[in-house]
Amino acid sequence: MIDPMLSSYEQMVFDAVARLENYRIGRTRVVVQVGQCSASVGASLLADELKSSLNVGDLDVVTTGCDGACFAAPQVIVNYQSGDASYFQNVNYEDLPEIRNSLVNSECRKPSISLERFFSLQHLSLMSGIGDIDPYSLDEYLSAGGYHGLLKALYMTPADVTLEVAQSGLLGRGGAYFPTSRKWETARNTDSPERFLVVNAEEGEPGLFKDRHILEGMPHRLLEGALIAAYASGCSKCYVYVNAEANLSSERLSEAIRLAQDTGLIGNHILGSDFNCTVELRIGAGGYVCGEETTLINTMEGVRREPRLKPPFPVESGLFQKPTVINNVETLANVPAILLNGAASFAQIGLPEATGTKLYSLSGSVCRPGLMELPMGATLRQIVVDVGGGNLPEKPAKLLAVGGPSSGVLPISEIDTRMKPGWLHESGVVMGGGGVIVLDEEVPVKEVVRSLAQYNASESCGKCTPCREGTPRVVEMLSQLEEDDDSTNTIQDLELLSDILAGASLCGLGQMAGNIVKSGLYFFRDELTGKNEKM
Amino acid sequence: MIVLERKELRPMLVAKYPREKTYLLPVLHFIQEEFDFIPEWALQIVSWHLKVPASEVYGAATSYSDIKFFVDDKQTVRICSGLSCWYMGGKSIYDQLSSVLGDEVSIQITDCAFTCSMAPLVEVEGQWFSRATGKSVLSQIAKRSD
Q: Which stretches does DSSP call E strand in A354-497?
């Protein structure tokens, strides 16, 4: 039974490589990076234009996902047959003749210094190949070693796969950093005949754009991870729940699912084994609270967008009251490499208590905003200054909003803080999904704090009273702070209300809603009360 | 025209979606794509098709921010109010557009659109434009109103 599995996989890879080589022979490959972000500066139009207008020899114009260097978007990369490459950044229509000429002369252009610097300091494993591999092509993923991790997993027992992931120390990347293997184990040990895997791609946190890059750049990496997770936890059906705004992600993912189905990587007897799993794509309909796992389940069942009481946890009773494993996209995309290279290679990166690499989304007032991959425990200085290039000229950074509205704000003096699970600062700052927004001195802190608090208030689903009534009250009291001559009482009330929110709310949205106030009051009390303006 | 489509909706749903509650969101997405919004009568048909009380369909459908129950005839411009976009120029674009444009264009503020690295982000008639300036947005509006 073992040999047919290996030979069918080998045949699949062999065919893929042969097809690719056959097609690529004598062709120059022109890569246009089109993601949702670069599409908004015209990358998809550029790709169409390049496909129709470049009549220079035999060309293979490919659209890929973005490699994370958003500041350089749209990027065009020319790969010559000789192995040389030519890089173009911030391309627009006027640059097309230049690209054409450079193709005719087989010129090689080096990437810009800032692009080289952006990548040289990163630790690429999850993002490797993204921006180079065609997301629409299963052949390209297979020839780059794709689905080998799945094959390896299918030779092991589900318990051994779970053990391997446990040894790697992989923690869930959605924001809670719960050990992934423990979810799988609990679900597998339930006696239900049916279990579900839900991939949480409802990325709806301001300042965060990591999952989208994976889905757009390499949807097969997620699918492979999801299949391994389904195998390890004994699930026979996998749902991928994608954010409604992420059109390109769902388009590329549904194509990937179709291709994988056609080649027998999804369905019955995957790769000739006894493992059966189907994958279905679901599209969300907006709302920050949908990222919360029980809300996600409710949404998929067709009821109101509201969280459920925990326990029972979804791993025991989730979707349709069946055990349900819910994993984040970034978590699952890490799994194929763990299986392929072994747990030890993953565990040696990062911190002892939080292993591996993490994707950080950097935006705001910095030179090189974008998505970067650094080991767990990287400092904010590494993210913002070393890779991100520091603040924009003449706009000194003042404030770092880390982890979105469920977290808090840090002053620039805390830039040596390490990004790790748990509190980054006891006043209520957490890493969350790894979003970092840099704001400069011109930005009024009270507006930032109020706007994040307002976001929580408007996204509150209204099911539980503490959150429904408390989050708008926080916003009101923040405004009150400025009007008070003596704000001591209001500050005390705000701190009390934050604690009540944390203790009494039903789900993470309410429980974390006080963090922004607490960290704001801790670091910027004078500005929130309007004291320094009067001085 | 809508009357015709109204008749067609029931068989279309029967052909496309199993009669299970879990398909509520896919069905709503489908209707919204067809009509640009969810007409109230369509909720009745959804209720019949999925065998869920109409009140529950209404309750669930209204809890999602992306499900719309009316369409705006005006040209709409949506400016992202995420922290990066707002303070990297979105705010000044909003001020500029509000002072220049009249009633024929509806200027809205939207929650974060998760393209923060390309701030500021502005949506003109369903199409996102990033690294926007007041001038570029105005030229896009002019291009689309022709």
A: 357-364, 370-375, 397-402, 409-411, 423-425, 429-430, 435-440
Residues of B in contact with A282 (CB under 8 A): 25-26
B63 contacts A306? CB cut-off 8 A: yes
pLDDT given for residue B1 in this prediction: 43
Residue among A206, A364, A435 minimizing CB distance to B88: A364
Tokens describing residue A12: 């699949």
CB contact under 8 A, B114 and A204: yes
Give the pLDDT of residue A24.
86
Low-confidence ranges of chain A (pLDDT < 50): 534-535
Residue-wise pLDDT tens digits, A134-191: 999 999 999 999 999 999 999 999 999 999 999 999 999 988 899 999 999 999 999 9
Q: Do A302 and B22 touch (CB under 8 A)?
A: yes
Give CATH 3.40.30.10 domain extents, chain B. 75-145
Chain B: residue nearest A392 by CA? B88
What is the β-pairing status of strands B122-124 and B75-80? antiparallel
Q: How many CB atoms lie within 10 A of CB B135?
A: 10
Q: What does the block give as tokens for A530?
A: 């309007």
What CA–CA distance (Å, rounded) separates A333 from A217?
A: 12
CATH topology (fold) of B75-145: Glutaredoxin (3.40.30)
Of B140, B30, B31, which is closest to residue B75 (Cα–Cα)?
B140
Q: Using CA atoms, how far apart are residues A528 and A487, in angstroms rounded to an integer? A: 10
Q: Are residues A112 and A89 in contact, defined by beta-carbon separation less than 8 angstroms?
A: yes
Q: How far apart are CA A60 and CA A232, in angstroms?
A: 39
More confident position, A468 or B4: A468
Reference A442, options A397, A379, A389; nearest CA is A397
**Cα separation, A423 vs A414, whole angstroms:** 13
Residues on chain A touching B131 (C-beta within 8 angstroms): 41
Please report, for chain A, how many H helices and E strands are present, in that order. 22, 15
**Using the 8-state DSSP alphabet, how is residue A383 labeled?**
I
| Pick from A38, A73, A437: CB nearest B83 | A437
Cα separations in angstroms, A517 against A174, A451, A501: 22, 11, 11
